[in-house]
Each structure stands twice: as structure tokens, then as C-alpha cells.
Amino acid sequence: MADAASRLKSLVEQLLGAPLPVRIRAWDGSQAGPPDAPALVVRNRRAVRRLLWKPGELGLARAWVAGDLDIEGDLYAALDLMAELVWERGEDARSLLQMLRDPEVRAAARGLVKVAGLPLPPAPPREEVRRARHLHTKRTDKRAISHHYDVGNDFYEIVLGPSMVYSCAYWPSPDATLEQAQHDKLELVCRKLGLTEGQRLLDVGCGWGSMAIHAAREHGVSVVGVTLSHEQAAYARKRVAGEGLTDRVEIRVQDYRDVTDGPYDVISSIGMAEHVGADRYLEYAENLHRLLRPGGRLLNHQIARRPQRDESAYDVDEFIDAYVFPDGELAPLGTTVTQLERAGFEVRDVESLREHYGLTLRRWVANLESQWPRAMRLAGPGRARVWRLYMAACALAFEHNRIGVNQVLAVRTPEEGGSGMPLRARTWGAEPA
């Protein structure tokens, strides 16, 4: 096809009823669109077929993961420019049945079919997983956790850096190092929990052991860390041994629902509760409440979505559900606080770290891009592309207040009413020494 880019640009704009804010560079080398804008690189006709068969976010994601689409130029700027067309407008006007009622749109669709070539739908990339029929059983949760976390510890070392902390850092300033910001986050959690030597800490979703090691080394507590990922557990145990902390830190491959050796003095749950699911959240909160001694504290660090007028109409993010966090569910902050209170907790403090997560994700993307060839060798090209798109898009989502992240400090307050909290509890607002 001569000048495929101009043809694609014209047809897509007819289909969407809006100008394309990015440049298109097509497989024949042609280009069309704003010359100074980032370019959407359409490497082959298969990319067009993917979008025709699955208009909207999932079709774009499949083309991106398969390498049929790419972005040339500033990734964040391109995603920002495309957000209104793909994410902010939702799926209305994405349904082919709706769109094809318009004669001009029908003509544009026929033109895209000609551009796409063979009408058969391409198979989804092998990195895509199907949503489980029965959500958040122990078996399906283990499958979902394995998909996300058992990518390879070497790959995560590239992304996360030496701290190996896979949750929002706590930045003293935007130009601080990622390692300093992650150290400060772990210390913030420890100070909110009020850790003292000899206490017993349960770290739910312990990841690669960073929180467990920090709490044991810096505060003298005994820690049990639980994860469903065998790769994480093996890595964490090796780190614990290297720090000489095997007498104080135990790492288990165990579902939080199977932990029965309470009571614990304190519990940390950092970036784990997003995997629990709405239907299981009260059970999750009740389990943690049961495992705490009276007066014990819980620090729940969790991503939140914005509430909707009609909560029954909320749909999970197609790209993240298919490629990143299978079966994951985000809840509004108010829902999380309510469920913790229903389980018997007294919520004492809520702190938003939304801007901190945008900074964290941008550093992770930079780490990934700095070792891109090695990352592709370790995880495979498709999985590396998943992580680059996911982290960049999430950085923008946090920065534009589409999602947030919050630390909720709660207490299992005894019946007599003493919470054990100081009168002026926010002493953790000061910078760590």
C-alpha cells in the first residue's frame, strides 16, 4: 500500500470522530500526523487486525505486547496524548456495533479491513492469561501471584534496584535515590507500627524480604514473612542468611489464610491487599484482626481507585487483568477503611502517598530502559514490553489522580478502649535520622 500512514490516519480519525494527537509511522516507512509529536509505530498489518477485532485498550495492548505496535519518542508524552482516546473516554464509542450505525464510520471500517488484509483475528500473545472463573480461591490466587512475581528474580533486580522493594517509595525529594526513598518507606512503616525490640511481626506478602530484613535488623523484632511465590521466598531466604538474621526472620510459602500461629504484636501488609478481591476483603481483614494481639497495630499499604457513581458498573482494567495482575481488584479508599472497621479494627491514621508512586514508577521504568536488551533476554520481549507499558501508564495514572495509594494504620483496640497510640501520633512525619 502506498503511503499507509496517511491512509491509516484518515481512517482512524473517521472511526473515532477525533483527530489523532500522535504521528503514525507505518510498515512501508510512510509517516503522517503532527511532525513534532511522538510516533505510534505500526510495524505490520497484523496490528490493524488486532485493533479491528478488539477495539480499545485490550487490542492496543495485544499489539504492543506482540511487538506489532511501538512508540517512537517520549513514551509518557505519547501515552498522555492518547489517554483521552483510549482510557478517559472509556469503552463508549468503542463498540463496533455502536460505531457501525454511522455510514461514514462503516466506510472507514471497510477501509481499515482492506488495510488489515486477511480478516482472521490474530491469536493473543502468549503472555496473556484468562480471568479465573472462580476468583480468589487459594488455587487461583497462587496462579495469579506466580504469573506476576515469578518472572525471574534477575529481571526484578533490574527494575527495582538493590532495595528489591516492589511498592511505593517515600521520597524526601524528587532527586533522591530510589534506594534512599525505599529505605525511608520501610522506616516509615516501622515507625507507624511503633516497633520495639522483641516484638513479633507478621509481614503479609513479604516479597523478596526487604521489610522483614529491615524490621529485624533496625528494630530488633522477630519476623514471619509469607508469600505465595516460591521464587520470592528462595530469594528472601538467601538475603536473610546473608544478613545473619536466620534466628529472627522466617520466610514461608504460605497463604495468609493459613497462618495460625498468632498472636502477633504487629502486622504489615504492603502492596498485597490489591490481590485479595472485593468478595474476600472482609475475610482478609478478619484474619489479620484475629492474628493480632489486643492493642496490636496493622499497617495496610494499598493502591486505591476512585469511587464511581454506579459501583455496580465498575469494570477491571483489561490490560492489567490480562497481562499484569490477573484477578486483581482495586477498591476505593473508603471501602477499604469500612471493611477494616467492620472486621473490628479502629482506624487511626490514613496517609496518601499518591505523588510518591508516580516518582517510584518513573525510576523503575528508567531502570528497565537502561538495561533493556538484558531485560528482554531474561523475561522475554513480550513480558518486558508488558512491564514497560504497565509502569509508564501507571505513573501517569497516579500523577493525574486516576488512582491513589494509601497507608492505613489500624489498631485492634482492646475492649477497655486503650489504643496504645500516643496523644500526638504523627511523630513519624519527621524525617528519619
From TrEMBL:
<dbReference type="InterPro" id="IPR003333">
    <property type="entry name" value="CMAS"/>
</dbReference>
<keyword id="KW-0808">Transferase</keyword>
<dbReference type="InterPro" id="IPR029063">
    <property type="entry name" value="SAM-dependent_MTases_sf"/>
</dbReference>
<dbReference type="InterPro" id="IPR020803">
    <property type="entry name" value="MeTfrase_dom"/>
</dbReference>
<keyword id="KW-0949">S-adenosyl-L-methionine</keyword>
<protein>
    <submittedName>
        <fullName>Cyclopropane-fatty-acyl-phospholipid synthase</fullName>
    </submittedName>
</protein>
<dbReference type="Pfam" id="PF02353">
    <property type="entry name" value="CMAS"/>
</dbReference>
<dbReference type="InterPro" id="IPR050723">
    <property type="entry name" value="CFA/CMAS"/>
</dbReference>
<feature type="domain" description="Polyketide synthase-like methyltransferase">
    <location>
        <begin position="155"/>
        <end position="391"/>
    </location>
</feature>
<keyword id="KW-0489">Methyltransferase</keyword>
<comment type="similarity">
    <text>Belongs to the CFA/CMAS family.</text>
</comment>
<keyword id="KW-0443">Lipid metabolism</keyword>
